[in-house]
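F.,

This is the one I mentioned.
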C-alpha cells in the first residue's frame, strides 16, 4: 500500500530551506520538491517506467518559475501519459528533436538545397545569378528564417503586399 503524504502548501514550499544536506519535500503522487543546500528548489516527479517498470525521476522545473499548482498540473498530465503506456521522457525527447528538425528546415536552407540541384542541371551562370538575386531581393527579407512547416500561401501573399508597400 502506498504511503499517505500530506500535500505541501505554498508557504511550506516558499520557506523550505536545506541546512547541511539536500532536502526532499513530498507532495504526493510522486511529486517532490528537491531543495539543495545552495538554495535551489527543483520540482521532480518519481514514477515507474511503463515498459521496464523501473523507478525513474523526471525534473519538471525550478521553483518559483514553476509554482506548486503548475507542478501539480504537470504531474497530472504526466500521469495521464503513463496510464496510456507512454514514457514522458521519451515523448519529451522526441518532441524536442521534432522541433529542432523543424527549426533547421528554414526556407533559406531548403531554397539553398533546391538551388544546388538547379546548379547541377547545367543552367547558365547568368540564369542562376538571376534566380538567386530575385530570391534575395524579393523573398528572403520576408521569410528567410521561417521554418518551412510554418509557411503557407498566405505568407507569400503577405510578403508580396509588403514588397509593394516598400517598393
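My design for it:
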Amino acid at each position: 500500500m502506498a504511503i499517505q503524504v500530506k500535500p505541501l502548501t505554498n508557504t511550506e514550499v516558499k520557506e523550505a530551506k536545506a541546512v547541511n544536506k539536500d532536502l526532499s519535500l513530498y507532495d504526493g503522487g510522486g511529486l517532490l520538491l528537491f531543495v539543495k543546500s545552495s538554495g535551489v528548489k527543483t520540482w521532480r516527479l518519481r514514477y515507474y517506467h511503463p515498459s521496464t517498470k523501473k523507478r525513474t525521476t523526471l525534473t519538471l522545473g525550478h521553483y518559483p518559475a514553476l509554482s506548486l499548482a503548475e507542478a501539480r498540473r504537470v504531474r497530472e498530465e504526466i500521469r495521464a501519459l503513463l496510464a496510456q503506456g507512454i514514457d514522458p521522457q521519451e515523448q519529451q525527447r522526441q518532441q524536442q528533436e521534432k522541433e529542432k528538425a523543424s527549426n533547421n528546415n528554414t526556407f533559406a536552407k531548403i531554397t539553398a538545397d533546391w538551388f544546388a540541384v538547379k546548379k547541377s542541371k547545367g543552367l547558365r551562370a547568368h540564369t542562376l545569378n538571376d534566380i538567386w538575386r530575385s530570391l534575395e531581393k524579393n523573398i528572403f527579407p520576408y521569410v528567410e528564417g521561417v521554418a518551412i512547416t510554418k509557411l503557407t500561401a498566405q505568407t507569400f501573399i503577405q510578403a508580396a503586399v509588403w514588397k509593394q508597400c516598400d517598393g
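The CA atoms of residues 19 and 37 lie 6 Å apart.

Talk soon.
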